[in-house]
Amino acid sequence: LPVAVHIQTSRALMVISLLLGFFGIIVSVVGMKCTKVGEEDPVTKSRIAVAGGVLFVLSGLCTLAAVSLYATQVTYEFFRESTVPINARYEFGSALFIGSLLCCSCPAKERRGQQYYRQSQPSTAREYV
C-alpha cells in the first residue's frame, strides 16, 4: 500500500478515537451516581456508566491501532534497503540511555538551594548540616 493510504487510515482511526472518547465522556457523565440526568434507577445508571467505559476502551483500541499502523509503516520504510543507505541508519539506544540518566539526575526546582536540618534536636534553634 502507498504511504498516503497508511497516513489516511491512521488519521481516520484517530478521528474515530476522538469521537468515541467524546461520546464516552458524555455517556459516563450521564451514568454517574452523582448526576440527576437520565434515569434515577441505580442499575440503569451503572449500565450507562459501563457503556461509557466501553466507549473509552474502544477509543483506546482505535488509538492503539492507528499508532501501531503508522509505526509499522515507518519501521518498514526505514529498514527497506532501497530507501535509506545502510550507513545512514543509526542506533539510538545508548544515546537514549545516557539522556534518560541525565534527566533523572537533575534535582527538582523546589530542592535546589534547600537547607537541610538535623531533626535530632527538638529545640527551635536548629543547626545547618
Automatic annotation (TrEMBL):
UniProt membrane topology term: Multi-pass membrane protein
Transmembrane segments: 12-32, 48-70
Keyword set, alphabetical order: Cell junction, Cell membrane, Membrane, Tight junction, Transmembrane, Transmembrane helix
InterPro entries: Claudin, PMP22/EMP/MP20/Claudin
A GO molecular function held by the record: structural molecule activity
Localization per Swiss-Prot or TrEMBL: Cell junction, Tight junction; Cell membrane
Principal place of residence: other
Record keyword Membrane present: yes
GO cellular component, one term: plasma membrane
Gene3D superfamilies: 1.20.140.150
Record family assignment: Belongs to the claudin family.
Protein name: Claudin-19
Organism encoding this protein: Podiceps cristatus
Upper taxonomic lineage: Eukaryota, Metazoa, Chordata, Craniata, Vertebrata
